[in-house]
Design brief:
Blueprint (H helix, E strand, L loop, with lengths): L1 H27 L19 H27 L1 H9 L5 H25 L6 H30 L4 H18 L1 H5 E5 L6 E6 L5 H24 L7 H11 L5 H14 L1
Antiparallel strand pairs: 1-2
Length: 262
């Protein structure tokens, strides 16, 4: 019995091993099994760390553009009368240019980060960088106009924030001078290949200016609040953070500045 079954078991095991090895050889010899399915994807030409940073930047730009579009569309009914019905004045012109330039800048930035571009990336990157030099000063100019209105009789404060706005304008020029874009490998997708250290001024100076504007306006409104019946030591923070005891216009001005700063 033993000698009769041994050849059978040995033959079965050998045939099974032959089938398995044949399947492995077939899989290994399949044409193109080890090739990259999409060799022209831009991420294939970046190091893993840079590719991860690029993807995060893509999400940030697309998310920012979505929020801006939502804000423009949700306030369109309120913004249109400022353009077509009210007299043409400097605040209205600056407001319209600020909204338009911000929308164009974010749209072009999202294209730079996500889409294949037919023109050279170096040229397109310069367009985006100089659009930044328009949108940031325009937005800051809106708050300079607000400073002029609130501190109407204070020449020192108005002069100080005028100088700060000029610093914001100078800082916003640095991306156009210190950033260089290039194509990712042979693809039509773009990336930044050179960032000079002084480009940080484009973010630091507007942040400092916005902080000072926010604090100055909040302090002025809190100081002008009618607090005769509510001592400052108990209500100052409520006025500063919530706008309690302020007139409706002043409360809206304070809360609008808080939303922008956040």
């Amino acid at each position: 019995m033993y000698t009769g079954k041994a050849p059978y078991m040995h033959t079965w095991r050998r045939e099974d091993e032959t089938d398995l090895s044949g399947q492995a050889n077939t899989m290994d010899s399949t044409p193109g099994s080890s090739d990259v399915l999409n060799p022209l994807t831009p991420m294939a030409f970046l190091e893993p760390k840079l590719a991860n940073q690029n993807m995060i930047s893509t999400y940030v730009y697309v998310g920012s553009l979505s929020v801006l579009l939502w804000d423009v569309l949700s306030n369109l009914r309120k913004d249109l009368p400022l353009v077509f019905r009210l007299p043409v004045r400097l605040p209205g012109v600056v407001f319209g240019l600020s909204r338009l330039s911000a929308l164009v800048f974010m749209f072009c930035s999202a294209i730079f980060q996500t889409a294949a571009i037919d023109i050279p990336c170096k040229r397109y990157g310069m367009i985006v960088d100089w659009l930044f030099a328009v949108v940031v000063p325009m937005t800051s100019l809106l708050f300079l106009i607000r400073i002029y209105a609130i501190f109407n009789g204070n020449r020192r404060v108005r002069t100080f924030f005028t100088v700060m706005w000029l610093a914001v304008f100078a800082g916003s020029l640095t991306p156009g001078l210190g950033l260089t874009a290039a194509n990712i490998g042979p693809t039509k997708y773009c990336k930044q290949v050179n960032v000079e250290s002084y480009v940080a001024a484009a973010a630091v100076i507007p942040l400092v200016n916005d902080t000072l504007v926010f604090l100055a306006i909040s302090w002025k409104l809190m100081k002008n609040a009618h607090l005769e019946l509510h001592p400052m030591r108990r209500t100052g923070f409520r006025v500063f953070f919530r706008g309690d005891y302020l007139p409706s216009f002043s409360r809206g001005l304070l809360q609008d500045g808080q939303v922008y700063y956040l």
